[in-house]
């Protein structure tokens, strides 16, 4: 086992529907009110500015909804979603669920001295809230680092994985993901890679060649 294991979330640790259905449905009606209520927050103000620039118009909520409909990994959208989800988890409105094999594997790796990190398109704030409020309790003590498209970069570009490796100060890293293109990028950066083929998930029947493939974590 590598010194570091870096893990994707959606489709790897947790069902895609939990994000695309449960979390998206929770965030969608709250985006407009959140922007109105937190407009003075520098993080929100910066996200709104980015949204207008990227969308090419000033209808921020419409742009956000359009990106959600297309499941586009747009950074300011992820930022706002993360803030809303963070509050939702803290209030008890949301509880994260994992595939049955995930939490035992995370705990075993941690107990064996493997350092664990997350790389997801969801914001770091959203990730921390996700792992803090789960059906298995607070799992954040198991994790050493969180990476997203803001502090690392796009998940399908090798440079993002090189940036993460520099932060982790290691070249002994294994990346687990259900998306072959992400595994290709990590491998190009010199990482070990493992494809996670979950039955019923969008990439469950994908071609993971040349990456080793598992159907559950162990």
From TrEMBL:
Cofactor(s) of this protein: Mg(2+)
Classification via InterPro entries: Enolase-ppase_E1, HAD-like_sf, HAD_sf
Transmembrane spans: none
Associated pathway: Amino-acid biosynthesis; L-methionine biosynthesis via salvage pathway; L-methionine from S-methyl-5-thio-alpha-D-ribose 1-phosphate: step 3/6; Amino-acid biosynthesis; L-methionine biosynthesis via salvage pathway; L-methionine from S-methyl-5-thio-alpha-D-ribose 1-phosphate: step 4/6
Cofactor mode of binding and number, as noted: Binds 1 Mg(2+) ion per subunit.
Keywords, sorted A to Z: Amino-acid biosynthesis, Hydrolase, Magnesium, Metal-binding, Methionine biosynthesis
Enzyme class: hydrolase
EC number: 3.1.3.77
Keyword Hydrolase: yes
Catalytic reaction annotation: 5-methylsulfanyl-2,3-dioxopentyl phosphate + H2O = 1,2-dihydroxy-5-(methylsulfanyl)pent-1-en-3-one + phosphate
Any single Pfam family the record assigns to this protein: Hydrolase
Subunit structure: Monomer.
Primary role: Bifunctional enzyme that catalyzes the enolization of 2,3-diketo-5-methylthiopentyl-1-phosphate (DK-MTP-1-P) into the intermediate 2-hydroxy-3-keto-5-methylthiopentenyl-1-phosphate (HK-MTPenyl-1-P), which is then dephosphorylated to form the acireductone 1,2-dihydroxy-3-keto-5-methylthiopentene (DHK-MTPene).
Family listed: Belongs to the HAD-like hydrolase superfamily. MasA/MtnC family.
The protein's name: Enolase-phosphatase E1
Gene this protein is translated from: mtnC
């Amino acid at each position: 086992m590598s010194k570091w294991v870096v893990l994707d979330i959606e489709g790897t640790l947790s069902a895609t529907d939990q994000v695309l259905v449960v979390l998206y449905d929770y965030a969608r009606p709250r985006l407009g009110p959140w922007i109105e209520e937190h407009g003075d927050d520098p993080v929100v103000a910066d996200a709104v500015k980015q949204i207008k620039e990227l969308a090419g118009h000033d209808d921020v909520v419409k742009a956000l909804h359009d990106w959600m409909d297309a499941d586009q990994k747009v950074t300011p959208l992820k930022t706002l979603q993360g803030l809303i989800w963070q509050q939702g988890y803290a209030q008890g409105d949301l509880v994260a669920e994992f595939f049955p094999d995930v939490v035992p594997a995370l705990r075993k790796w941690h107990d064996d001295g493997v350092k664990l990190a997350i790389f997801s398109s969801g914001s770091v704030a959203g990730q921390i809230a996700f792992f803090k409020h789960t059906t298995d309790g607070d799992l954040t003590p198991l994790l050493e680092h969180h990476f997203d498209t803001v502090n690392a970069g796009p998940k399908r570009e090798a440079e993002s994985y090189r940036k993460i490796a520099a932060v982790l100060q290691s070249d002994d890293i294994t990346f687990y993901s259900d998306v072959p293109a992400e595994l290709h990028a990590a491998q190009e950066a010199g990482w070990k890679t493992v494809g996670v083929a979950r039955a019923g998930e969008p990439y469950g029947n994908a071609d993971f060649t040349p990456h080793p493939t598992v159907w559950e974590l162990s």
